Amino acid sequence: MTIAIATLTREFNYNDMRLPDPGPAFTPDQVRDLYSAQYPELTTATVDGPEYAGEVASVNYPGLKRLSQNVLVVLAHEVRARI
């Protein structure tokens, strides 16, 4: 019986972008915190995953587009109410 060793590749997805993996020492929460300097809305993002497909572990930071659109709608209503 032969045992094969495969390397697991991690993907971090945010807003239809794939963020490079900074290294295996980082947890998904730490990756989110690292990229929050570049993408401030990640500071409130939840971590979804990882989901495994073959040798790829995908971690997603979902709901940010939807949240941004909802915030814009609320702001538009507030502006209309003040006019």
Q: Can you tell me about this structure?
A:
Helices cover 33% and strands 24% of the residues. The longest helix is centred in the C-terminal third of the chain and has 19 residues, at 64-82. The chain has one domain (9-82). It has a four-stranded mixed beta sheet with strand order 2-1-4-3, covered by helices on one side. The chain has helices at 28-35, 64-82; strands at residues 9-14, 17-19, 48-53, 56-60. The chain is of the alpha+beta class.
Number of helices: 2
How many strands?
4
Low-confidence stretches: none
Strand order, largest beta sheet: 2-1-4-3
The main β sheet shows up as: 4 strands, mixed
Q: Given the C-alpha coordinates, what overall shape results? A: elongated
Sequence of secondary-structure elements: EEHEEH
Number of domains: 1
Based on helices, strands and strand pairing, what is the structural class? Answer: alpha+beta
